[in-house]
Amino acid sequence: MTDARTTVVVITHNRCAELLRTLDRLAELPERPAVIVTDNGSTDGTAAAVARHHPGVRLLRSGRNLGAVGRNLAVRQVTTPYVAFCDDDSWWAPGSLSGAADLLDRYPAVGSVTARILVEPEGTEDPIVEELRDSPVPRPDWLPGPALGSFLAAATVLRTDAFRAAGGFHPRLWLGGEEELLAADLAANGWWLTYAGQLTIHHHPSGVRDSTVRRSHGIRNTLWFTWLRRPVGPALRRTLHLARTVPRDTASLRAFAEATAALPWVLRERRVLPPEVEARLRALEPAQRDSTARSYTG
């Protein structure tokens, strides 16, 4: 079942054991995909361990922690038409990469396919799955699944050329909701994003993470995306909603301070989305307000 249509890209930073488990699982896939790992400046022996245990994996050493931009570095090396992302604590299920490639082959206007996420070790669905499955974004009749307004990088296969043309992940966002801006730019370029529940990725959340920092970055990046791409009215509504609903703590205060301090470059780079893409995002607003999976309270 070897399938040469897709390359898997993984970014990692100081999570050697989790990464080796992921690479073991990817090596067992029947598709036998090419794998590229960007080591974001790890100091725990990650690079040496990958070279020793998985010599067939292409290893890029960024020299410092670039966050999501580490994916951009890897995609520059991709020669396959499709690129699948996964994190160092997640892995694709057998057959899912081929299934995603089949969908992208069959539907030339689809730019990305997002899979169902199972949380390990219990094997339960991630709470975000229900929201993906019930996405309120209006969809054309031909689309093979629900239309999405964004995607989850660790569970998505994209067209390599579409990713590059949209500019990849913005270098300022680092990690934490960094997909929203790229997803909107993909849609502005004419691509549809869809969910495919028949595809699966497994996620075994790492214990080596700073959830407070990630939450702060998520709030900041949501504000930046909103100010960079949304019209004035929706941008103000979303900003005020966040100000009312995020926890009153240091992490939230830091997020708003960082976002506000960046207004000079945000305004320079501001480019409002086409009306048809903005309409998709407006359809998502009620679900986003009620979402527990997307909240910034955790």
TrEMBL record:
Q: What is its EC number?
A: 2.4.-.-
| Molecular function via GO | glycosyltransferase activity
Outline the extent of the Glycosyltransferase 2-like domain: 7-131
Q: Which domain of life is it from?
A: Bacteria
- Per UniProt, which keywords does this protein have? Glycosyltransferase, Transferase
InterPro entries, per the entry: Glyco_trans_2-like, Glycosyltransf_2, Nucleotide-diphossugar_trans
Q: What SUPFAM superfamilies does its record include?
A: Nucleotide-diphospho-sugar transferases
User: What family is it from?
Assistant: Belongs to the glycosyltransferase 2 family.
Q: What is this protein called?
A: Glycosyltransferase
State the organism of origin. Streptomyces anthocyanicus
